[in-house]
Amino acid sequence: MKKGTKILVAISFLVVFVNLLAWFMPGFSDGYRQYFFPVLTNGFGKFTSKFSFSVGEILIVAAIIWCAILFFISLSRFAFFSISKLSRSLEKGFFVSYRILKKITKPLYSATAWLLVLISVIMSCNCFILYHCSSVDANMPVLDEYSLEELATLRDYVVTKCNSLSKEIPHDANGNVIYEGDMAKTATEAIAGISDLFPALKGDSVSPKALHFSDFISQQYMQGYYFPFAMEAGYNDTMSIMNKPFTMCHELAHTHGYILEDEANLIGFLACIYSDDVVFQYSGYLGVLNYINNDFYKAVDKSVYNSHVKISALVKHDNEFLTDDSWTTVEAKAIVKTATVKKAATTFVDTTLKVNGVLEGKVSYNHVVGLIMEYYKYSPELVENPFMLASN
């Protein structure tokens, strides 16, 4: 075995070993997030934040091109070798071409092997290990379930807040929200504002970035992405504006090591509602409205649902994923049908979560309802509390 191969094998075994530690020793992952992961955020994250564009998207495009070249050259090599064996009259010419391609593919295969090992190291450090950290509710009583009455109280409270805040937000003639501040900067300040609640949020944050391929992201019905290999918090710039503050804070939570989706939702929610910016406060409540409202809608019959606080028309408008005009533009540019893209994206996200030990898959996003319930019930001093208001 050559020296380079030995190093590759050694690194591969080390990656497997570290991931096994993360799976079976939760304390290892917690210590990693607390002491080592911030170094990556403050170092590599700060570096990629200097670029106005998404480095993560560039790396994905580069990977696709690399794979296409590798596939084409490998296929050509196989074709020339096969033809040289089948046709003796052309054997010499095709065999020479095969030898040339063999010389080209050898360093290409070697580089690919190194890249795969590098990717496994980065993904383990910036993603896989973090899936096995202790839950954010580790210091609270575990809330396995909650009553319908509690869910109704929380739902009505969030709807009331949305209805009230929607009237405080400036809208243009078309009913769209107007925002003139620096949203990315406000998002990093909002995250820092709740660092006492979540210690891993302490320290500098990366700067959220608009994704260039936001139209394609919209077809996936995704609001944002955390790129572990670039330490970036990317958000869908095509979606309606009121989705952006919550999404930015959600993705920033990932860059601080809170990798589970329900926990990132909780952090995004609290960061927004604690912000001094009313648009962020509104976005925070809108960000969890669908989760809570859908849970309540499924739990009761239609007459009971209709007897509770109504969601105003303005809130419904502000809570759209994309406007009709945006969807028209997205569909006009689409190369692949949206239904196909959405199905593939859902399968990818669901599989990724399950492989990393989140057995509920994409459904785990909905667990934010239970987490919010826990924070309101067991930490009533955090924010205005719906259960205390209801009892009064």
Question: If you had to describe this structure to a student in words, what would you say it looks like?
Answer:
By secondary structure, the chain is an all-alpha fold. Helix content is 65%, strand content 3%. It has helices spanning 3-24, 26-49, 55-86, 91-128, 148-166, 183-193, 214-219, 244-255, 261-274, 278-299, 302-306, 313-318, 324-333, 338-355, 368-378, 386-391; strands at residues 209-210, 224-227, 232-235. The chain is globular, with a radius of gyration of 25 Å. The N and C termini lie far apart (75 Å). The model has no long low-confidence stretch (mean pLDDT 87).
**SSE pattern, N- to C-terminal:** HHHHHHEHEEHHHHHHHHH
Unreliably modeled segments: none
Strands ordered across the widest β-sheet: 1-3-2
Mean pLDDT: 87
What share of the residues does DSSP label as strand, in percent?
under 5%
Describe the main β-sheet briefly: 3 strands, mixed
Please state the CA-atom Rg, rounded to the nearest Å. 25 Å
N- to C-terminal distance: 75 Å
Number of strands: 3
The DSSP helix count reads: 16
Class per helix and strand makeup = mainly alpha
- Which descriptor suits the 3D outline? globular
The helix content is 55-70%
